[in-house]
Write a structure and sequence with these properties.
By secondary structure, this protein is an all-alpha fold. It is 56% helix and 0% strand. The chain crosses the membrane at residues 20-39, 46-64, 76-97.
Length: 226
């Protein structure tokens, strides 16, 4: 009597369950998307670290093996590859969603929200600019600077020391003296420059040069002085 032995990589799997490459790949992609998008959307380094550690533990234990002892030899290559690839894409996507404000109210909605509280339109406009970009304009010009950059900053974990902005050299007034041209260039640059450009172009012509320089100094002035 010959006893049929199960393959070593399927010894702990229930009979009748598919063990092909597609389920492994889809499981890895799903876990990678979950971890990547949540970490990318997290502006706080503490929250991001906790989420990343917790989800990595859950994903490894329940998704990659289900048991600590024989875990190593049972890690499917397709599942690991799918996890890593999906996490990289979802991480970038999470940062893009946060930096472009895709999940938040538009600039017009922010202005309307402040105006509903009974504020005059110009003050509501200044508060909306501050809420979106951290720039202090108009009535808020004398207000103290925020302690941290806005949560929409286009890098992970809201780091205050992200290094020099590569767009500073090209958007300097010495390189691009015309205010409209400068704001157009900002609008075509990554966030938060794109928001600066759109807001600046919506201002009266006489105020555009001052706004463009204020936006530039907010992003590049402190770095250049160091």
């Amino acid at each position: 009597m010959t006893e049929k032995l199960a393959p070593s990589d399927q010894s702990d799997r229930p009979e009748g369950v598919s063990t092909g490459i597609l389920p492994d790949l889809l499981a890895g992609i799903a876990l990678g998307c979950l971890v990547g998008i949540l970490v990318g959307l997290s502006a706080s380094p503490v929250i991001a670290s906790v989420i990343a550690a917790f989800l990595a533990l859950i994903g490894t234990f329940f998704g990659f093996g289900g048991s600590i002892g024989p875990l190593a030899p049972k890690l499917g290559a397709a599942r690991i590859a799918g996890f890593g690839f999906a996490m990289a894409i979802a991480f970038a996507g999470g940062i893009a969603l946060r930096s472009h404000g895709a999940l938040g109210p538009s600039f017009a909605d922010r202005v309307e929200g402040f105006a509903v509280e009974g504020m005059e339109p110009s003050r509501a406009h200044d508060l909306a600019i501050f809420d979106l970009t951290g720039l202090r304009t108009g009535h808020l010009a004398q207000t103290a600077a925020p302690a941290t950059p806005p949560a929409s900053a286009p890098y992970a974990f809201g780091s205050e020391d992200g290094g020099a902005d590569p767009n500073c050299a090209g958007l300097d007034a010495r390189t691009m003296p015309a205010p409209d041209t400068r704001l157009d260039a900002m609008a075509l640059s990554p966030e938060p420059w794109a928001s600066f450009g759109r807001i600046g172009k919506a201002l009266p012509v006489a105020d555009r040069a001052v706004f463009a320089e204020a936006a530039f100094q907010e992003r590049c002035g402190k770095k250049a002085a160091q």
